[in-house]
């Protein structure tokens, strides 16, 4: 008789073989799926046997040389300084990095830290960027990600789709646990796959002065939210077998029947700023019944939000409406209370066919989320859940009760006011730029990502007439525990290009030369950033080293060069899905833009955001400026090519 561990390994080997064969024959596909759904029970063994801090043998995140960072930094701040300011800044940074300067002491500290930790930056980043960040996660931190939008003509169509989506996500969880995900690569380098392990079962826990994060990867249940009520659904039974489509659909129908009237929206508390929420949380958790319900939500694999109908403004197209529904749920009168924003993944299904998720950013970047979304979409399309056999389930969904005190009611009222203000202040414009996509840019021998980034620079400059400090996320997952580095997309070259395009006296050949220089400069920075040699993470590391050493914050961090070059008026990232989806999020600064894009072969899905309270910015106008910039750049390339012929 085989031991549990031997059986697991045998099944896993068979699973791998079948996964290859599944592409070829329907019979193999069915066998593959059956084995897939039953292997979930054995993932406890998997995680124990594969236990290793560095199973992929990835290199550690490097600490750049101090002088290299300073030199690079000085280059990036030029667009934001006049000549005299630049001379002062150069002198200040040279003093900082002198042999006797404080920079060298901090660098020494950092190098020692790097030797004694698996990733010198990751814990700092988790606290600085996420757990210690006190603004609401809604709009300010948690992105929305759409799946291709659907049309639901009835509640039963929505519930059918929801069932398939839940089972697709469950099957992805099984793939993660059984280590079946293909390892991603950047060039020949493997990427750290550990963020995938944190997608399901993870929850942020509000606290003062900073939040905490909790992982429950072995959880077997999900929570379904409807009309602000929460229900526990056991997705896997004790033996790890998954509910079948029919069984799950029954549970969803049962939930709808049990929650026809809206409940008090406890969940809206999670949309408030983190200090307010942390204080309300303490009150909420005084009651045992609340503790049990909250713990069930926190330890679930993920949330499924069956939303109420939304009112859309006439200005918004469907993509924009979808983005808003995913980011903020439309406020207190719509679906903002039908959430638990601390959960890493909340799938959202609107009555009209808006489908996607909102994700809490702390444990993972957008890349793994996008890969999962492609899988889920394909799984649904191929009807992957219909072969799941009935499991041994006899439990109905369990409604999670709450006891609401007067103090909690006050906190809920405050949270409602705050989310409604935020919703009214948030501008979003989502669209598909369909004139061309990656293929055209590649045919011109340019990097598509750098090309789009330079278009964003040009769009900002043509609208505001000043250089815009510009953040792009670069993934550093080629290193163990790697997260991101900032690509500083605003450069002397990007500003020169924008100016050249707007100057009617400059000819096309010169404009093209300016475009090439701008793209080249961006590409070079990208290469440095993905290799861990940008400037921002290193400088933050030095600043936090000073704090840990009990030293005062070095002068360089108050310098105008630092203040201006880190006031990121354009906050961007590329999150690519093969399916027709996109990610969207809010700006970092009050006078800034958020812009997430998905460059596909022949189109680019783009989401632009801004704050209505700022009179200089407008998501709608930025969209137009960006579309015009992309068209101008295409025209320039076509005209200069024709001129050569
Ligand atoms: N000529 C022709 N083709 C080119 C080219 C050129 N000069 N330069 C690049 N290409 C090709 C590439 O080979 C690649 O081809 P593929 O589609 O067959 O793979 C394609 O164009 C795309 O490359 P490029 O546009 O240069 O960018 P990228 O895909 O390498 O992405 C980053 C760049 C910075 C976005 C990426 O490295 C990264 O870090 N991604 C993670 C971002 C992130 O963290 N986002 C989430 C934040 S929550």
What is the name of the CATH topology of the largest domain?
A: Chloramphenicol Acetyltransferase
- Helical stretch tally: 21
Structural class: alpha+beta
Low-confidence stretches: 1-29, 37-51
**Mean pLDDT score, rounded?**
92
- Taken as a percent bin, the fraction of beta residues is 5-15%
Q: What can be said about the biggest beta sheet?
A: 8 strands, mixed
CATH architecture of the largest domain: 2-Layer Sandwich
CATH class category name of the largest domain: Alpha Beta
Query: How large is the radius of gyration?
Result: 25 Å
| Heterogens | coenzyme A
- Give the terminus-to-terminus CA distance: 75 Å
Strands side by side in the biggest sheet: 11-7-6-8-9-10-1-16
- Indicate the percent of residues in helices: 40-55%
> In one word, what is the shape?
globular
CATH superfamily of the largest domain: Choline/Carnitine o-acyltransferase, domain 2
- How many discrete domains? 3
Number of strands: 18
């Amino acid at each position: 008789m085989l031991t549990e561990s031997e059986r697991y390994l045998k099944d896993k080997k068979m699973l791998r073989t079948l996964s290859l064969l599944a592409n070829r024959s329907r019979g193999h596909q069915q066998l593959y799926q059956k084995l897939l759904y039953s292997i979930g029970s054995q993932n406890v063994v998997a995680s124990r046997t594969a236990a290793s801090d560095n199973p992929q043998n990835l290199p550690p995140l490097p600490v750049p040389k101090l002088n290299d960072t300073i030199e690079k930094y000085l280059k990036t701040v030029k667009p934001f300084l006049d000549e005299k300011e630049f001379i002062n800044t150069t002198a200040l940074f040279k003093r900082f990095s002198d042999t006797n300067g404080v920079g060298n002491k901090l660098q020494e500290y950092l190098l020692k830290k790097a030797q004694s930790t698996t990733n010198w930056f990751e814990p700092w980043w988790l606290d600085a960027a996420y757990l210690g960040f006190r603004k609401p996660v809604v709009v300010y931190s948690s992105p929305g990600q759409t799946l291709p939008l659907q049309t639901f003509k009835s509640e039963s169509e929505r519930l059918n789709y929801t069932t398939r989506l839940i089972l697709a996500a469950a099957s992805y969880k099984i793939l993660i646990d059984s280590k079946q995900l293909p390892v991603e690569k950047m060039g020949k380098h493997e990427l750290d796959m550990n963020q995938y392990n944190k997608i399901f079962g993870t929850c942020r826990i509000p606290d003062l002065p900073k939040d905490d994060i909790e992982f429950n990867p072995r959880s077997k249940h999900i929570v379904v939210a409807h009309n602000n009520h929460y229900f526990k659904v056991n997705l896997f039974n004790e033996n790890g077998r998954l509910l079948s489509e029919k069984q799950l659909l029954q549970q969803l129908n049962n939930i709808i029947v049990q929650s026809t009237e809206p409940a008090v929206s406890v969940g809206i508390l999670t949309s408030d700023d983190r200090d307010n929420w942390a204080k309300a949380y303490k009150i909420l958790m005084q009651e045992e019944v609340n503790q049990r319900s909250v713990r069930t939500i926190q330890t679930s694999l993920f949330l499924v939000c069956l939303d109420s109908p939304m009112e859309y403004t006439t200005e918004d197209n469907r993509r924009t409406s979808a983005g808003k529904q995913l980011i903020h749920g439309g406020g207190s009168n719509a679906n903002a209370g039908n959430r638990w924003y601390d959960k890493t993944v909340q799938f959202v299904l609107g009555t009209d066919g808006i489908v996607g998720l909102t994700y809490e950013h702390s444990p993972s970047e957008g890349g793994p989320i996008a890969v999962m979304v492609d899988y889920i979409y394909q799984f649904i399309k191929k009807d992957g859940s219909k072969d799941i056999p009935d499991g041994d389930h006899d439990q109905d969904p369990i409604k999670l009760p709450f006891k609401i005190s007067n103090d909690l009611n006050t906190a809920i009222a405050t949270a409602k006011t705050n989310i409604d203000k935020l919703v009214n202040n948030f501008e979003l414009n989502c669209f598909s730029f369909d004139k061309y996509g990656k293929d055209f840019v590649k045919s011109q021998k340019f990097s598509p990502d750098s090309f789009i980034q330079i278009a964003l620079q040009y769009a900002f400059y043509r609208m505001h007439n000043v250089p815009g400090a510009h953040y792009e996320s670069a993934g550093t997952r080629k290193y163990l525990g790697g997260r991101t580095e900032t690509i500083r997309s605003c450069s002397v070259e990007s500003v020169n290009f924008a100016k050249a395009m707007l100057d009617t006296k400059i000819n096309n050949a010169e404009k093209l030369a300016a475009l090439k220089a701008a793209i080249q400069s961006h590409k070079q920075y990208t290469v440095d950033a993905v290799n861990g040699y940008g400037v921002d993470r290193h400088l933050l590391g030095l600043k936090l080293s000073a704090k840990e050493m009990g030293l005062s914050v070095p002068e360089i961090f108050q310098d105008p060069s630092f203040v201006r070059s880190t006031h990121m008026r354009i906050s961007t990232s590329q999150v690519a899905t093969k399916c027709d989806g996109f990610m969207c999020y809010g700006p970092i600064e009050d006078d800034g833009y958020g812009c997430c894009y998905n460059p596909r072969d022949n189109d680019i899905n783009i989401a632009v955001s801004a704050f209505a309270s700022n009179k200089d910015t407008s998501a709608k106008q930025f969209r137009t400026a960006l579309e015009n910039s992309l068209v101008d750049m295409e025209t320039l390339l076509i005209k200069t090519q024709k001129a050569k012929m």
